[in-house]
Amino acid sequence: MKPPLRAVLLPLLASLPLLLMPPAGAQITGPAPAQEKPLEYKLANGMTVIVKPDRRAPTAVHMLYVRVGSMDEVDGSSGLAHVLEHMMFKGTPTTGPGEFSRKVAALGGRENAFTTRDNTGYFQQIPANRLEDVIRLESDRFARNQWADDEFKRELEVVKEERRMRTDDNPRAQLYEQLSAVTYQVSPYRRPVVGWMSDLDSMTAQDARDFWRRWYVPANAAVIIAGDVDPQQVRRLVDKYYGSIPARAVPARKAQQEPQQNGIRRMEFKAPADQSYVTLAFKVPQLRSFEKTPENDDALALTVLSAVLDGYEGARLDRALTQGPDRLADSVDAGNGLWGRGPQLFTLSGVPAPGKTPEQVEAALREQVARVAREGVTDAELNRVKTRWIAGEIYKLDSVMNQARELGSAWVQGLPIDADERLMARLREVTADQVKSVAGRYFGDDQLTVGILRPLPVDPNRKPRQPAVPVRH
């Protein structure tokens, strides 16, 4: 599990396997292969529907996005969105606990779900001729989810075990969890998606039912279907099963503005670990639209900066900190949170090499950004990262799952269905001068929170935790 702050990495940076990359000198300037354009419309009850035909294989992906995540919780109820995600597999008036998954498997499909700060998503990939079956199943549990209190108690223990295995037993995950709590004072991003254990201990079945009734309303959800499908047939099926769900108002959301930070923040976390670790989180602007505004332009330039620093093997951070006989770090990385429903961060992280300290790595990471601010970047660096992004857009089309997820993610952020094309166009426009400018303006102490993992001795006799109950995902 990657720690929460690393989740702000731009998805298309994370989806570029090195084996798929063109040679360093290659130039890819043409558009992606021609595809049928996605269609978007709304049902009478307010639910959004997005259809993306892709007829290269007889498979289809059906996804349901709900615009509710951990950021919609309140203090004392952290983890509720994630717990409810688990409970959505526990039944309806016509489907018993676990029966949803068994039915999808019997169709020859696979399915799962996920919860983030910004949204909750459910997906199934099935043979295209079984699409109606999963639409019927998903619409049923969206509208009629129900389960007994005892079922909730059992599943809550599964979530607690998930927290123990993925966070409590993972020093870096704990570091990022606490770093979020220090970085943000007002933003609900300060709470962990999985929830604080004390909140899980006090959570009730009725809490989850109330959360479901409040947020799982048609106007707060989108159905995304991609693959070998006929849009008109999809329209008939979606209207038949989802269109009959009664409309309800989406609860009002109160804007929460993070106060200005004045001075560097630092936190340290001690835990049994093999190596120390340091991460720097800088508050930065986020992309809110594709309009040319100073904030949007800076968010895009910061994304290019992150790729110049760490967007390919042998990029600036790698060359400067991890190579040579006197290297400072075993590994380094950088990432920019381009967009999200809440405030975003630019992160720099590193694992000190033997004999080196987190403070040395921290100083070296900041120096690399300062060097860009002084000297700028080369045209070759810009061309390289832009070429890789364009290549990634082409290779991305091989996966209908990726296509559906990108469409759903754009909807969650309130962006248009051609957000991927617009993003590529805007990134291609970023200049070396813009990258140099943001490197000089967003990396001061007043935007920075530093987190350091101080390793304690590891018990050589300690055995890895064995889950007492099965963890779904």
How does this model look, in words?
With 473 residues, the protein is α+β, with helices and mostly antiparallel strands. The protein folds into two domains: 43-241, Cytochrome Bc1 Complex, Chain A, domain 1, CATH 3.30.830; 265-456, Metalloenzyme, LuxS/M16 peptidase-like (Cytochrome Bc1 Complex, Chain A, domain 1), CATH 3.30.830. It is built from 16 helices and eleven strands. The chain has helices at residues 11-14, 80-87, 99-106, 131-144, 149-168, 171-183, 197-202, 205-215, 231-241, 294-310, 316-321, 358-375, 379-396, 400-412, 419-429, 432-441; strands at 39-42, 48-53, 59-66, 110-115, 120-127, 221-227, 265-272, 277-284, 329-336, 344-352, 448-456. The strands form two sheets. A six-stranded mixed beta sheet has the order 1-2-6-3-5-4, with helices on both faces. A five-stranded mixed beta sheet has the order 7-11-8-10-9, sandwiched between helices. Helix 10 (294-310) crosses helix 16 (432-441). The longest helix has 20 residues, at 149-168. The radius of gyration is 23 Å and the shape is globular. It starts with 10 loop residues before the first helix and ends in a 17-residue tail after the last strand.
